[in-house]
């Protein structure tokens, strides 16, 4: 391959090589191959490759030009194993190469054959049946078979035949079959497994395994979970004979979750290579939600099983489906490190023993950390030979060399690739397998099932008590366990069935079964053993606390203690005792007093003897001394009085005692009393002694000597009221009276006129009085002792005025009322007369000394109320005339403002706050004001409106943090103001994407874009999602771009692009748009050199075709310039670069500027030892050298192969002086001649 750019060749055959023999030094050669048949892919198969490792190399691009960003494929150097093949992955099927050699050693180079392959049309995977398979686990009463048959014979291929079936069983295992029918044995306990199938056909042109199906088909296998029996009675349950026991039955359904998808690679040999890369891919298509991209929360764990005899030259990269990559390991030419547990000492392609390594973003250990290596080796089944000496990386979890953040935004669905590059020769190894594990939450919606429990019943086949009628309670349970993936919930149920068994008549063990059936018919059982033990009861104590009882005593309770349980039995007694036969309780008050024997009889059964015990109970009668009585006699009487005649209903057997009075004769034995002159009123007590616990009983007989007036009188009394003497009917007496400050009061009288009307001279005076002497008498002519009494007469008070704060109040306000009256010391009883008014914290009446402070509310909060107060003055028990206050109106308060908690909005949206009030009284208004805000503008500070109201402010947040506005809404009705409600509106900022327009590069001939333009939102928030659109000029609408969900998008077509960025947390979104313009590159140019053999040579660049970009030019990697002319160019080889400001053109050629050396020094030091024309390289040019006399000394060639003139003539050295020359040459198609001279110096 000649030096420089060699253009593009469209071919599907031929040979590609560096050149004949060893390649030349200092090469920079490029070549592009494109398929001669559109749609095909170029394939280059290298049959020989030998370059100086580390210095001379061949770079490859999957593109139609060298250096296209993002299309680099690989770099080859040294002696990689041949043959090896490169097949284009570019849409146009092209491969581009650049070969670089330095000025050192040159080797044989490379030879390859050129061919083309037609990309395969993928087959379609299908299952005859993809229906879900539900299996009862091995722990159920009816386990199902865990061996499931699969039939993929419905898979099809548009060409050829399906020859390979790749099964991922979803349980961590995988297999490959050559036939469509197979079976798989799944775990027999609860689990959910999603089986995935992909197929390949027999088109091996682009993939040695066959063309892979573009789809995968799945089938779900569900092995049902055991329900949880936590809460069900455990075995064994103890019970005593004769007792019952309750068994708790509780079963809760459980959740099974789809096993986290696993994808494991096949083995990949890592043969001896130098600069060679080896890749292995895992297909995660369809395992994540559509358009899912990697975020920091979804960083995977990379695990690989690797053996390699030299880790120092390995670079391990993880590449995402959308092309983002991260270097997880770089050996950095460490001379002694190895991978595996035993590396084969020979570089012969035979694998040694692998070790497993895991790589995470953080949380592991660094590759360079101390203690990460070991010199210990371990052989394995596939290699038992000698192990390479050195330090082996220990199998553990390491931190990635570079952060996984480089993968953020990468597509999760698709093919993930592990790339291992071997930079030097004389080593080899094997990657036995590798896998990626993503956090469970990243899979979006893993399948789950929580089987509902249908029935839960108890049963028994033993001889214990029968199972009674059962009732099962079904309760819905959210997230019953053991786990539920986000976002949940997992909805199951709980069945509860508690039964009471017994009584158990005999000892023994009895098994009861609690059986639960789920909705799929799977049955599960929990056995509970009830162990009954019999202890014969024995009575220790049988008595009644409190015996003996009195006939007036309350009930008596039996005390029955001993060993065992007393259930049942009968209590009996002799006649006359009221007894409860079941409980033994006695009732003394309804029993006949006396002594009784109580018997308890109990037959416990179970082989135990009958219990028959007795106890005694005594009930004593309560004595009755009768009812009190009295009589009256004159002090002159001497007639004997029988005291028994004065009392009634007494029992005999009591005793008499005198308890008061003097004189007369008392006979205690007969119960008689004879008065005498001078005797005083006397009383006598008749006593009957009670037997404990009954108490003694007494009655009283009284003998009054002379008449005694028994009376009551109201004292003091009120002005204008009659005297209020009360005395027994038939009482007689006379009276006399004197008064103070009274008018019209008689001074004497008898029992018929003592209650006269009393009237003060001054009604408001402090008080008046009446002094009276009363002389009692009787029908037998006895005159009693005089009675003196003074009765106080108090004035009646009155209300003179009432003042109050207002006659209109709002509900809840306080009424302040001041009452004034006379005389001093008057208090006031008030009574409220209200309509729809309630006094808070008080009733409707009360007492005050003159001030009323009452909080008033409307009883019905929707309507107005009224209230008046009746005031009655009171002084010293005298009540004045009632006084009625003014009518007071109590207006209702408006209702509470009601507004739902407001959801957060996005900047630029309306608040849309709707507020009503809970009572909605006609005329109610709602006013608002903003009491707080942060980072937000656009709100109305205050406002008012008739309820209900809406506040529709458009709020803006120009920051990057959440802001808020708090509105306070208060209800108003007339002059009454109600409560308030604060509503806070959170205002989330919008994403702020910025798009800058640009250019794409398009091949003007094929119309194929070979360099896209990266539209960058300049956003990196992991909570942002991105949706890209392109404007359709036909429909005048933006249409979505499938699969474009990253923060950047590589535009490959001209047009207007839009991105909508949404914050997945706040759901706020905004958009930006930009234009992308296509640019056709310049594809060829020529350079013309003029003014040769001067110090001011000129190079003129002519581009054709020029393309549509803004062309710029550079000489020898110098500064770019707009002009296509370079002046003052020195002699020698120069590189002309042509590009454009849009980056679409990248052309390079080398140009030689002709000149001659002004001197040379042929002294053998290797510097300027010969002389020739520089840069001419024209075989037909004629160069003649003369001495100063015109003698022809030498004719030499100007080609690159010429060694030039060495300063000799016929082998003899010529002296130092000037020598002349003529050169006949061609410049820009014209014949020219130059004559000049140069110096020879020794």
List the helices and strands and how they pair.
Layout: E1 4-10, E2 15-17, E3 28-34, E4 41-50, E5 57-61, E6 72-77, E7 84-87, E8 95-100, E9 109-117, E10 133-135, E11 147-151, E12 162-168, E13 174-177, E14 181-185, E15 191-201, E16 217-223, E17 237-240, E18 245-247, E19 250-252, E20 256-257, E21 268-270, E22 276-283, E23 301-308, E24 314-319, E25 325-330, E26 337-338, E27 355-360, E28 373-374, E29 391-393, E30 397-399, E31 415-422, E32 429-437, E33 448-449, E34 453-459, E35 473-478, E36 491-496, E37 499-501, E38 508-518, E39 523-533, E40 538-544, E41 549-550, E42 558-563, E43 570-573, E44 594-602, E45 611-620, E46 629-633, E47 641-642, E48 655-660, E49 665-667, E50 672-674, E51 682-688, E52 697-705, E53 712-713, E54 717-718, E55 725-726, E56 732-740, E57 748-750, E58 768-777, E59 787-794, E60 798-804, E61 808-810, E62 814-822, E63 827-835, E64 837-839, E65 845-848, E66 851-858, E67 865-875, E68 878-879, E69 883-884, E70 888-891, E71 897-898, E72 905-906, E73 913-917, E74 925-934, E75 942-946, E76 949-951, E77 963-973, E78 976-988, E79 998-1002, E80 1009-1011, ...
Parallel strand pairs: 1-3, 10-16, 17-39, 26-29, 27-30, 41-45, 46-52, 54-59, 61-70, 72-78, 79-86, 93-99
Antiparallel strand pairs: 2-9, 3-8, 4-7, 4-9, 5-6, 5-8, 11-14, 12-13, 12-15, 15-16, 18-37, 19-36, 20-33, 21-32, 22-31, 23-27, 23-32, 24-25, 24-31, 28-29, 34-38, 35-36, 38-39, 40-42, 43-44, 44-45, 47-50, 48-51, 49-50, 51-52, 53-55, 56-57, 56-58, 58-59, 60-62, 62-66, 63-65, 63-67, 64-66, 67-68, ...
